[in-house]
């Protein structure tokens, strides 16, 4: 008979014994609950993390019927003991990271963003982007308006036959133009920066359904009458799941910024969250971001981001 109460992890002290621990008395059957122990994380972490325990229905994960195909989703019943321990350990590490960033940030804000994707052909698509922020690009409130062309450089992944343009590509590039307005100017919206952008993306398929993506990006910046270049290198880990019939893609990425204005590594940006597919035309991302600026002066910023995506 299928066991619908897979496990509960109450902290790092239980991880080594996780393979021998099954909860059959939970008042919330069918849930996997990941929570952080008070003794391991401390009072502040406990109040933040335990108050927001993450829960997923164990019986809502599924795998495709074809066993030879690489699974786009993974059943929780198929997870081996080491994978369960790894997922619980990752949750604890992420909890520590989030708690430390909340305490250390100099300021916090909300980053709303909207995207539009239009397929132009089997190898190309248009990407339009608008974003609003206060400290993301400068110390003033700014509005970004950008347009890009995405170009596939390598054939689609053989293990996937879907209409998902980005997830199906192993190697592709993006070129575009971004105009940044300073909307705190007394004279109204004023052009703060003009930026040309060139990016290259490459994916590597990892065990257990994980995917690693690397991005190398160059920002060709005209700020006022001065030109400079900013190089950005991002590493991202994702894993695609299906929850209650909707695709859920948790992601974690780290991005490093090199700015020629200061001849040094000026910024590091961390982002953690899921992308949720509501229907074939609409998705959204909600994520936590932690930004550390080293040049020209040291400062930190925490943000809650919401990115709405439309596909045509």
Can you tell me about this structure?
- It is a single chain.
- The model is unreliable at 1-80 (pLDDT under 50).
- This protein has 312 residues and is mainly β.
- The protein contains three helices and 15 strands.
- It has helices at residues 38-41, 43-49, 81-104; strands at 8-9, 31-34, 54-57, 107-119, 124-133, 142-152, 171-182, 190-205, 210-223, 226-239, 241-243, 246-259, 264-279, 282-293, 299-311.
- The longest helix has 24 residues, at 81-104.
- It is globular and about 45 Å long.
- Helix content is 11%, strand content 51%.
- The strands form two sheets. An eleven-stranded mixed barrel has the order 4-5-6-7-8-9-10-12-13-14-15.
- The chain has two domains: 8-104, no CATH class; 113-311, Lipocalin.
- Strand 9 (210-223) and strand 10 form a beta hairpin.
- The N and C termini lie far apart (44 Å).
What is this structure's SSE topology?
Blueprint: E1 8-9, E2 31-34, H1 38-41, H2 43-49, E3 54-57, H3 81-104, E4 107-119, E5 124-133, E6 142-152, E7 171-182, E8 190-205, E9 210-223, E10 226-239, E11 241-243, E12 246-259, E13 264-279, E14 282-293, E15 299-311
Parallel strand pairs: 1-2, 4-15
Antiparallel strand pairs: 2-3, 4-5, 5-6, 6-7, 7-8, 8-9, 9-10, 10-12, 11-12, 12-13, 13-14, 14-15
Helix pairs in contact: 2-3
């Amino acid at each position: 008979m299928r066991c619908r109460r897979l496990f509960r992890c109450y902290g790092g002290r239980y991880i080594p014994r996780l393979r021998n621990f099954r909860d059959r008395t939970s008042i919330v059957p069918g849930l996997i609950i990941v929570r952080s122990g008070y003794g391991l994380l401390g009072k502040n972490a406990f109040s933040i993390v335990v108050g927001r325990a993450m829960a997923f229905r164990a019986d809502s994960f599924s795998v495709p019927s074809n066993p030879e195909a690489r699974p786009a989703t993974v059943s929780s019943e198929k997870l081996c003991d080491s994978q369960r321990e790894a997922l619980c350990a990752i949750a604890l590490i992420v909890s520590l990271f989030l708690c430390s960033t909340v305490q250390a940030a100099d300021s916090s804000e909300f980053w709303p963003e909207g995207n539009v994707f239009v397929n132009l052909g089997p190898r190309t698509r248009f990407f339009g982007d608008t974003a609003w922020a206060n400290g993301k690009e400068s110390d003033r409130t700014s509005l970004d308006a950008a347009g890009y062309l995405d170009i596939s450089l390598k054939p689609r992944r053989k293990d996937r036959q879907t209409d998902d343009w980005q997830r199906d590509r192993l190697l592709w590039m993006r070129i575009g133009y971004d105009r940044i307005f300073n909307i705190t100017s007394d004279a109204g919206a004023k052009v703060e920066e003009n930026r040309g952008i060139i990016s290259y993306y490459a994916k590597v398929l990892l065990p257990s359904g994980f995917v690693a993506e690397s991005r190398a990006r160059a920002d060709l910046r005209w700020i006022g009458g001065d030109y400079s270049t900013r190089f950005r290198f991002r590493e991202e880990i994702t894993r695609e799941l299906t929850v209650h019939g909707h695709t859920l893609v948790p992601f974690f990425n780290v991005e490093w910024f090199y700015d020629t204005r200061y001849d040094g590594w000026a910024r590091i940006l961390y982002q953690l969250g899921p992308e949720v597919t509501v229907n074939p035309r609409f998705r959204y991302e909600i994520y936590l971001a932690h930004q550390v600026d080293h040049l020209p002066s040291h400062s930190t910023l925490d943000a809650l981001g919401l990115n709405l995506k439309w596909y045509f």
